[in-house]
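ARCHIVE CARD
CATEGORY: sequence design from structure
SOURCE FIELD: tokenized fold
FIELD CONTENT:
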């Protein structure tokens, strides 16, 4: 049964996972992970890290680690943002890694601020073909070991990657659109095998509603992503108390329900946790996915006489 499940994971990765970037349930706190135009939006230096364990107890469920740092930049009247992001995503026998330098130009338009951003870097895809060979997976319909397109040794390939995005934000709402892997980079594994990363579309938005009791605020948001053949939609609602505690629910239709909560600890340090509960038949095969988020936001002010440091968390 384990061999069958692992074999299915190969097929699922090639047909589904390869079409989408890594899954992050607490996407609303890490916008520059999928849109380079979001760097420098909070006017603070932000360091954000997420670690995710996918489908606990499912063989090959894998894990995801996403890390980024971004900062606003100001030169005269010109404002922009600069960031750097890295990703390590493991599923089954595949290991997807990426690193990007991000930049966004910002301009005030109407009641808000428009950002136009880009990212350049690389994507790296590795495949543990030796593990597949050792498993000796066989089927009366198909032979994995006899397929020249499936490497029989551990392989890794590298490809140049480009992404673009736009972001618009006001005091009450925000929205963004991005195209990652716009150049559709091709990663080659030797002479017989290659993988092409399809362009991914990300659309997101949200707004802030403050109740009569101003200690409470409701922050709905959504994230839509697609490779133009398949679509995934997250719709979320987050209730925040006193700018310090929050909790919420995300629905991924026909797939998953996500519970998440967090706290602004002190001095710009924030901690978040989410638990993905499968709503399909997969609920009988695993114990859900767990994701931890840690972020630190601060402002560093340079002056001629001395340097002043203060930490503020912005959500």
């Amino acid at each position: 049964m384990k061999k069958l499940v692992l074999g299915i994971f190969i097929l699922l990765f090639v047909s589904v996972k390869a079409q989408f970037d890594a899954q992050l349930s607490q996407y609303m706190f890490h916008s520059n992970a999928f849109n380079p135009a979001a760097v420098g939006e909070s006017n603070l230096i932000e360091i954000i890290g997420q670690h995710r364990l996918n489908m606990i107890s499912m063989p090959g469920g894998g894990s995801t680690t996403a890390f980024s740092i971004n900062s606003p930049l100001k030169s005269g009247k010109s404002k922009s943002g600069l960031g750097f992001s890295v990703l390590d995503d493991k599923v089954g026998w595949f290991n997807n890694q990426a690193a990007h330098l991000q930049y966004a130009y910002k301009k005030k338009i109407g009641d808000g601020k428009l950002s136009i951003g880009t990212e350049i870097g690389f994507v790296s895809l590795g495949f543990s073909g030796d593990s597949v060979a050792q498993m000796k997976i066989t089927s009366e319909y198909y032979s994995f070991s006899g397929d020249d397109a499936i490497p029989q040794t551990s392989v890794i390939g590298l490809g140049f990657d480009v992404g673009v995005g736009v972001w618009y934000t006001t005091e009450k709402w925000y929205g963004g659109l991005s195209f990652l892997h716009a150049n559709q980079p091709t990663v080659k594994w030797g002479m017989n095998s290659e993988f092409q990363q399809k362009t991914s579309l990300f659309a997101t938005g949200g707004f802030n509603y403050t109740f009569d009791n101003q200690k409470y605020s409701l922050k709905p948001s959504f994230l839509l992503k697609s490779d133009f053949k398949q679509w995934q939609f997250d719709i979320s609602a987050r209730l925040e108390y006193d700018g310090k505690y929050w909790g919420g629910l995300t629905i991924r239709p026909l797939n998953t329900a996500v519970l998440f909560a967090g706290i602004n600890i002190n001095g710009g340090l924030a901690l978040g946790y989410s638990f993905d509960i499968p709503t399909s038949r997969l609920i009988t095969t695993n114990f859900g996915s767990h994701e931890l988020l840690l972020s630190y936001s601060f402002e560093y002010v340079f002056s001629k006489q001395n340097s002043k440091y203060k930490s503020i968390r912005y959500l």
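CARD ANNOTATION: The first strand starts at residue 45 and ends at 53. The chain has one domain: 2-311.
SHELF: design records, drawer C
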